[in-house]
Design brief:
By secondary structure, the chain is α+β, with helices and mostly antiparallel strands. The chain is built from three helices and four strands. The chain has a four-stranded mixed sheet, covered by helices on one side.
């Protein structure tokens, strides 16, 4: 199974860059028909993870993917599953 991995550690304090990268990776997954996107937000205080989840819950974004999975073994990782 093909997947895309997005690590947000380098841009954690740039809100516009975070949303731009999230848009880019979701668009790429749709275009290339990739079933899984792994987003690494890091453990930290949890603010970046909350930012990512708020972005993914927007109605125009939510309709693009099938489901979100929060990794129960690694707090700083989110999986976005697509059904093509």
């Amino acid at each position: 199974m093909a997947k895309i991995k997005l690590d947000l550690h380098d841009i954690f304090n740039k809100s516009g860059a975070i949303e731009s990268e999230l848009n880019r990776v979701i668009t790429e997954a749709m275009q290339k028909r990739i079933a899984l996107v792994e987003i690494i937000s890091g453990k930290g205080s949890g603010q970046l993870k909350k930012h990512v989840l708020r972005f993914l819950e927007q109605s125009h974004v939510k309709k693009l993917y099938h489901r979100i999975e929060k990794d129960d073994k690694n707090f700083g990782r989110i999986f976005v599953h697509f059904r093509h």
